[in-house]
Design goal:
Distance between the termini: 23 Å
CATH architecture: 3-Layer(aba) Sandwich
Strand order of the largest sheet: 2-3-1-4-5
Largest sheet: 5 strands, parallel
Helix content: 40-55%
CATH class: Alpha Beta
Shape: globular
Strand content: 5-15%
Number of strands: 5
CATH topology: Rossmann fold
Number of domains: 1
């Protein structure tokens, strides 16, 4: 039985991580075999890479260096966690994936989108999500949430608002381009309201006809 691959995307403070945890708890409680992971991270190597990428001490990291670190972590995550879980018929919930690279390194940093597409495809061996939940909200709201506790801010949080505006635009353009895969949710309501919307979308998604494990970009 083929598994299902669901990714959670959004800008800083969008609530995606909270919603992933809520959905995971719901799926497990209803007897679904689900597993969570995150990108970057999710593997021993990925955790080390994540610490480098998000450490404010490395604010001068070149955009290309940043890109290859993300892709390295992702390649290991797909190899070690995601593909084995899908092959075992599990539902994989992933906090960020290739769409974040397009939004952050493409729209945010200005790297070539075609190059990013090729690298994403190479790092994942063609794996794409079955469903992506994009949590959208105005940049000032998201950054306001993140900046309530300065000790928890990471390198991305400290980027200027104009960077985050470009990232948000990138996510929305991806959603417009991939309407069948990406579902946009308003990240402003209370978490309980958003969680109900997430459960409705995912329940309908899981009722659809099963698809094969190996998925390729359209």
């Amino acid at each position: 039985m083929a598994g299902r691959f669901i990714t959670f995307e959004g800008g800083e403070g969008s609530g995606k991580t909270t919603q992933l945890q809520v959905l995971l708890t719901h799926l497990l409680a209803t007897g679904r075999d689900a597993v969570e992971t995150r990108d970057p991270g999710g593997t021993p190597i990925g955790k080390q890479i994540r610490s480098l990428l998000l450490d404010p001490a490395y604010g001068g990291t070149a955009a290309v260096t940043e890109l290859f670190l993300y892709e390295a972590s992702r390649a290991q995550l797909v190899h070690e966690v995601i593909r084995p879980a899908l092959a075992a018929g599990r539902i994989v919930l992933c906090d960020r994936f290739t769409d974040s690279t397009v939004a952050y390194q493409g729209y945010g940093r200005g790297l070539d989108l075609d190059v990013l597409s090729d690298l994403n495809r190479f790092a994942t061996a063609g794996l794409t999500p079955d469903l992506t939940l994009l949590f959208d909200l105005p940049v000032p709201v998201g950054l306001g949430r993140r900046r309530r506790n300065e000790t928890e801010q990471n390198r991305m949080d400290r980027e200027p608002p104009r960077f985050h505006e470009r990232v948000r635009q990138g996510f929305l353009e991806l959603a417009a381009r991939h309407r069948r895969r990406i579902r946009v949710l308003d990240g402003r309501p209370d978490p309980e309201t958003v969680a109900m919307q997430v459960r409705t979308i995912v329940r309908k998604f899981l009722q659809r006809r099963k698809r094969p494990v190996t998925r390729h970009n359209p």
